[in-house]
Structure formats: structure tokens, C-alpha cells
Amino acid sequence: MLFSSLLITEASLFIIGKSLWWLFFFGNLYLICYYIGQFVFPFSWTRVFPSWSVLFVGIAMAALTAPASQEFKLGQGIFGICLILTFIILPIMSIKTYRIGLVDSVMSNISTFCAPLSLLSVAYLSTFETPNKLMVLALLLGSQALYAFVLVQLPRLINRPFNPGFAAFTFPFVISAISFKKSLSFLGITGIWNLIVAFEIILSFALVSYVLIWYVYFLAGKDIELVLFKKTKP
Questions:
Q1: Which pLDDT tens digit goes with each residue over 76-115?
Q2: Which GO cellular component terms, listed alphabetically, does the Swiss-Prot or TrEMBL entry include (predicted)?
Q3: 3-state secondary structure of 127
Q4: Can you name the CATH fold of 1-229?
């Protein structure tokens, strides 16, 4: 949706961009319905992961991109639904993560705890013409509390062998930094808080770079293994 919203802003690509926006929106809806039908019911804790927040709240991108798509009413409705889903999903994620436990390969998914409220914070500012300051403040405090919660666990989460699940260290930290910056700007808060914004931006950039480098090594290694396999195959 974010990509299609960029196309919409170009007059010559408006139709393509708007068509893609609706395609991605309905595709996201289908994915949610399919996942619920296949993996949520009958319910089993073995199928619960922190990344549920990405699946069920990620459609809030429809609200975030509302200024481009001009689907403000739809965006506002999606925001409300995703806010409710967030408060339903977070306790389930917490029980699975901290009471039942996660296997080592998906521990990086814990980073997604800070994504939902941060995404909703930016979405709220984007889709409502006159955002309520108390609502913005509440989303800011909630999202940053979860950000801090994830941040203190980051050294333990990242200090393990690389696996593709490390992608979870990218979007949650990026959207948290964007959310913090936009919320402070809307509320007119400056001073030392700008230093914290800078820290979050730098950290998110460092994490994205770190994951990108490791992905290059990971994929290059797979290619090398494939080439060697072909050469040694009788």
C-alpha cells in the first residue's frame, strides 16, 4: 500500500497506483481471513506468534496512506478496528511469549510488540483531519512504552545466530521512530526529546543496515551452496 500510495501522487500513474492500492487492500483482507480459517480456529497455542500483530494490524497501512488514496472514511474505520484488535492480540502475544515460550528461531518476533501502537499512532495522524491531542498523547505513551519494553530485550534478542526472522528488527523500530517524531511534532514538544528521536532514527537505521548485510551474506551463501551442489552432482 505504501508503494502504491507513492504512485498515486504522480498524475500519470494515478490509475495504476489507485488500482494497486485496492488490490493490496483486498489482498490483505483475504490473507487475514485465510489465516483465521486455517490457523486460528481451532485455536492452538502452538500457532500463536508475536508476528500476529503484523498480520492483523498491518492493514492499518490503509489508514496511514489515506492522504494519498483519499479513502479517509475507510482509513478511520480501519484505524478503529485495528486499535481494538491490538488490545485483543497483545495479551495473547504476551501469554505465548512469556508464559508458554517461543522457540529460539522466532525470538526476534518479540520486536513486533512495539509495532502496532506505533503504526496506529502514525495512521491516526494521517487519516483524521483534526486529531485529538489526548488520543495522540495516549498512543504516543503506549507506543513508546512498548518500544522501551522491546529495547531492553534487544541485546538478548539480537545476540544469536542469524536467521530470516531477523527481519522483525526492521519495520517495528522504523515505525516507532517515525511515530515518535510525528507525534512530538504534532504536540509541539521539542528540546531534549529531539535527541531521543535522533537516537531512535539512528538505531532503526543501524538495525536495518545490520539485517540487510546479514541477508546478503545469507542469500549469497545459499547461492554458493546451490552452485557447489550442481557442480558435485553426478
A1: 999 999 999 999 999 999 999 999 999 998 999 999 999 9
A2: plasma membrane
A3: helix
A4: Glycosyltransferase (1.50.10)
Which residues of the chain are under the pLDDT cut of 70?
A: 222-234
Dihedral through CA 113, CA 118, CA 120, CA 124, nearest 10?
170
Query: CA 155 to CA 152: how far, in whole Å?
Result: 7
Measured CA distances, 166 to 39, 107, 158, 187 (Å):
23, 9, 8, 33
Count of C-beta atoms within a 10 Å radius of residue 131:
17
Per the CB < 8 A criterion, the answer to whether 193 and 142 are in contact is no
Per the structure block, which three cell numbers stand in for 50? 508475536
Closest-CA residue to 60 (of 12, 146, 125): 125
128 backbone dihedrals φ, ψ, rounded to 5°: -105, 130
Cα distances (angstroms) measured from residue 32 to each of 13, 99, 112, 228: 28, 26, 17, 40
